[in-house]
Amino acid sequence: MQPVRRTSLIAQVTEQLRAEIRSGRWPIGSRIPTEPELTELTGTGRNTVREAVQALVHAGMLERRQGSGTYVIAASDLGGTLTKYFADAVERDVLELRQALDVQAARLAAQRRDDNDVRTLLRLLDRRSQVWDTDSTAAVDADVALHRAIVAASHNTVYLEFYDSLLPVIEDVIRSRTTKYGNQYHDEHAELVHAVIDGDSDRAARAANCFLGSLIAEYPER
């Protein structure tokens, strides 16, 4: 970050903090620098930094944790809003929404993936398989990263930004579902990834639909 001008300090610092989050330099789940560190980074006073941080807390992008620090909980204002809105959502409902998003993302990814996407998908698929039975936290992280990479392979920036806004909610459901049911679905993920890599959009969409349909079926109808 760069020192800011002396006009509209709070707004400028708020935008700088928001930019750090949206760029991924401060990823979801990470602790941001302390107030003294932010004061030094921005060249402003602690009151200005405190107000800027509080603005992003109100926006739902940051969360203060007593005795621990301030953490990133959403990658955008929209993400913060959706995280709060879906805080009490029924898990099956979230999965049904995710099914609609992931199926079309898989179709687009199969049509548009490039060599970098292929390498990323294979790496994340392998990572997911390696950690699933040994580290539950890493397993969920790998699963989320893999599905996000499929959306990224669609090369639709609006799609990816909206998906990123939902990631905290999606991650919570994945973590909860894994604790309850524990099914790995390694073969289903491999089929999905290889359908995308092979450029078979119908097969990719079908794989995503079947996999998420199986997840939804784990939950009783309301």
From TrEMBL:
GO terms for molecular function: DNA binding; DNA-binding transcription factor activity. Keywords: DNA-binding, Transcription, Transcription regulation. SUPFAM superfamilies: GntR ligand-binding domain-like, Winged helix' DNA-binding domain. Pfam families: FCD, GntR. PROSITE patterns: HTH_GNTR (PS50949). Residues 7-75 form the HTH gntR-type domain. This is FadR family transcriptional regulator. It comes from Nocardia nova. The lineage of its organism: Bacteria, Bacillati, Actinomycetota, Actinomycetes, Mycobacteriales.
